[in-house]
Specification:
Length: 140
């Protein structure tokens, strides 16, 4: 089952690196949600100072768990060279870029979300470029 796992091409490397980053950023948010808030430009508030029913910390932990899981999925896809998955991620990562940029432009999200948006866009463009390069060179 695990004997053929390796990073064989540039697109696998882009996916693996993105996966490692998502995994570790998710882990940080699960362990220390206030760090994730700071990274996205949101001033963390002590739990004792939060209004009753404020679920900010729970939401950050849930989002971080999704990032953690996504990181694992991306790393496993990269190690198994699942290029169909790579192709599916490119347009959806561009959609994510657009959603985060629109949220910042509409002042719904803090400017720190531009970093998240750019991370998604750069990852999508690098993976897309690597897939294009590999298709031209018949690399699998």
């Amino acid at each position: 089952m695990f004997n053929n796992l390796s990073l064989r091409n540039p697109s696998s490397w882009t996916m693996f690196i993105f996966g490692v980053l998502a995994f570790f950023l998710g882990l940080v948010g699960i362990i220390q949600p206030e760090i994730t808030l700071q990274l996205t430009g949101i001033d963390p508030i002590e739990q004792a100072q939060r209004a009753t029913g404020d679920a900010t910390t729970a939401f950050v932990i849930a989002s971080s768990m999704a990032s953690f899981n996504m990181g694992v999925y991306y790393m496993l896809a990269a190690l198994s060279n699942w290029q169909a998955f790579y192709r599916w991620t490119v347009p959806f990562r561009m959609v994510t870029f657009c959603v985060f940029m629109l949220a910042v432009a509409r002042e719904i999200a803090p400017s720190g979300f531009v970093g998240v948006a750019l991370w998604e866009l750069i990852g999508a463009l690098l993976t897309g470029a690597a897939l294009w390069y590999e298709s031209r060179r018949n690399i699998e």
